[in-house]
From TrEMBL:
This is Uncharacterized protein. GO terms for molecular function: protein heterodimerization activity.
């Protein structure tokens, strides 16, 4: 392998598959607030981390069967093995992969709610916009050395769309409320596992209050929203990589 080829192989996983323009479009779907460039980069980085972790988990399940092409069963296996990957939950009602696993929904009178009604209206939102993530998802799949069948790509699109939509809503809430309010941290561990260290006090303090423009979502608002959307090792990696992406952009 040539030096140039080797360098590309090392750097491909670090390329951001979700463009800031896409991130800002998702934020515009849920809030009229301005999104700073640093916030867009942070949100793109967090979404990349989440999708990469899901793809890697599915890839391990596929490798056990000698495959490099991911199928929906690999996605279910990845989530089953690591509860930290259960993100973008609202997508599950829209996906054939998860149908039957989310349970039936009944109204106040005990009548079964049809699936089409559970999906809600057809107004623009995370479902309508899920296809916007396909190029980024395929790029991320390639960077991890795997491919996926079309239905699996659709699930990854949907999860990314719903996750980022939720991240946008929570970031906007952080701005409105002046910091992280009404939110605590819960860590899930087994009896054999060591309890991971808590967040540094400076991080907790930074996320509990905020200062600045009340009409602009900044990088720290996205980081605060990340603590609300994720937990465990995935959350820590997402926060670390989002900060790194901001530093790299500043240095560039």
């Amino acid at each position: 392998m040539s030096t140039a080829t080797s360098r590309r192989a090392r750097t491909v996983p670090d390329l951001p598959p979700f463009k800031p323009s896409l991130v800002k479009a998702v934020f515009r779907d849920v809030t009229p607030m301005h999104v700073s460039p640093a916030a867009a980069r942070a949100a793109a980085s967090v979404t990349r981390t989440v999708l990469r972790e899901i793809i890697d988990g599915a890839g391990r399940a596929a490798a056990e069967e000698g495959r490099k092409k991911l199928i929906p069963a690999d996605l279910l296996s990845a989530i089953d093995r690591n509860v930290e990957l259960e993100v973008g939950e609202k997508w599950y009602d829209h996906s054939p992969t998860f149908r039957g696993l989310t349970g039936d929904l009944y109204d106040a009178e005990g009548v079964l709610v049809p699936l089409r009604e559970r999906r809600g209206s057809r107004r623009p939102g995370a479902v309508a916009g899920a296809h916007r993530f396909e190029a980024g998802v395929r790029k991320l799949l390639r960077s991890r050395g795997v491919t996926a069948v079309p239905v699996m790509v659709r699930d990854l699109d949907g999860i990314a769309s719903f996750f980022l939509t939720g991240l946008a809503r929570n970031a906007a809430m952080v701005v409105r409320e002046g910091g992280v309010k009404r939110f605590g941290s819960v860590t899930l561990v087994t009896s054999e596992e060591a309890v991971p260290p808590p967040f540094p006090k400076d991080l907790v303090g930074a996320l509990s209050t905020r200062s600045g423009d009340a009409r602009t979502i900044g990088r720290d608002d996205v980081l605060a929203a990340t603590t609300m959307q994720l937990f465990g090792d995935v959350r820590q990696r997402a926060l670390t990589e989002a900060r790194g992406a901001a530093r790299d952009a500043s240095a560039g």
